[in-house]
Design goal:
Elements: E1 4-5, H1 6-13, E2 16-19, E3 27-28, E4 33-34, E5 52-55, H2 57-65, H3 68-79, E6 85-88, H4 96-105, E7 108-111, H5 116-131, E8 133-144, E9 147-153, H6 159-168, E10 172-184, E11 188-192, E12 200-203, E13 207-210, H7 211-215, E14 223-234, E15 250-253, E16 256-265, H8 271-286, H9 291-307
Parallel strand pairs: 4-5, 5-6, 6-7, 9-14, 14-16
Antiparallel strand pairs: 1-3, 2-7, 8-9, 8-10, 10-11, 11-14, 12-13, 15-16
Length: about 300
Amino acid sequence: MNKITVRQLVEKLNLEIIAGEQGLDYEITTDEIHRPGLPLTGYMVHFSSERIQLLGKSEITYLHSLTEEERNKRIGNVIKERPPCIIITHNQEGLTYLIKHCNTQGVALLRAKEHTTRVISRLSNYLEKELAESIGIHGVCMNVFGVGLIIRGESGIGKSETALSLIEKGHRLISDDLVILKNIDNETLIGTHNGTNRDFLSLRGIGMVNVPRLYGSGAFQEETIIELDIVLSAWDEQKYYDAMGPKNEAVEYLDVAVPHIEIPVRPGRDIAALIEVAAKNWRLEQQGYTAFNEFQERIVQTIKESSN
């Protein structure tokens, strides 16, 4: 199970720490967010203590309307459940009672400047990506003409060199050598780096190079939706490579099917150019156009015309 700490959340979303600093190392294990409306009225059945608790204007206004005794009781019941953290939106103030209980229980009390809807959106997007099921695979991840793709193949086949050629053509590197794949909403696969290999490309004979330093910040991208899986393979004279018919092959990562193609490598073949064509062709297919289908239609039309 993936997890992050409250401290990581604070740093990523630039949240203000108001109280409960001893709780910054609490772990967050779910991307679900809870607005504790019913619990603040005293109904604590099925309280989701593993979720981040978010208090917007409605919740804080309600708490302010209570007597001091009732307010302390209601918010005390919530914080005693030790949720990972409590986030206040709209930069709201007058939180003395919250500060007291959070410091006592060691629960981080955080504050965001944005309105509630914006905070929920940012929080959900971040948690979904960070806590998504993930795997690491050996390969290179690139964004070519806006198409996210994985380049795989045996060691020494030329994956990183091909990535370099694509970068020089203006495309973007996401990750080299180790690609982290994350399953988002069970249908979307995101490719990213593991943090350590961010920015770097490893080239045999040269060593490690920092891509943004050499080619500018536009040559690197944090993540991309994976839409193509490309395998580079050594050219096999005994194997037949069909240059006509579509195979519609796919490979699965984390139960998400990704269109797959194989590109045989041999001297003289411009692999980077072929990958560019593959990316453009994939885009056309998403728009409903397939070159092979049009070619077949022309053949049928020619046969019809010749038979008349």
